[in-house]
Amino acid sequence: MTLESADRLPWRQRPAALLAVAAARALTGLPPHRLRRALLLASRGARPATTAQALRARTAVVSVSIACAGPRCLQRSIAAALLCRLRGTWPQWRTGVVTQPFAAHAWIAVDGEPVGEDAGAVRDFSVVLSVP
To answer: Looking at the predicted structure, is the pLDDT value of residue 3 above 90?
Structure first.
């Protein structure tokens, strides 16, 4: 298992990132339709996130959580989206699959472009769920 590296987050920014990670951990246990509904509710009224805002949120959750820095893409993507929401914005949240060989992945995007991910690898995934 390879962990993503991230710079240390300033102390004043850690509580929001930790809150987003904790909330994301709880949400990962929901069935897909309920998870989508919860994220739709969270996204209401938010401005679209810019690439820089989404990347800052993703970097923040990776820096405070070993789980998010590792293979837990679902928790990482939810936490990054929720942290964006705490800051008044919302990225596109997506999950997708590839069939040969089967794999599932979750990520955040801005204007359809993955944020903090290998864009070429993510393009192979067929989107199954998306919140806007």
So the answer is: no
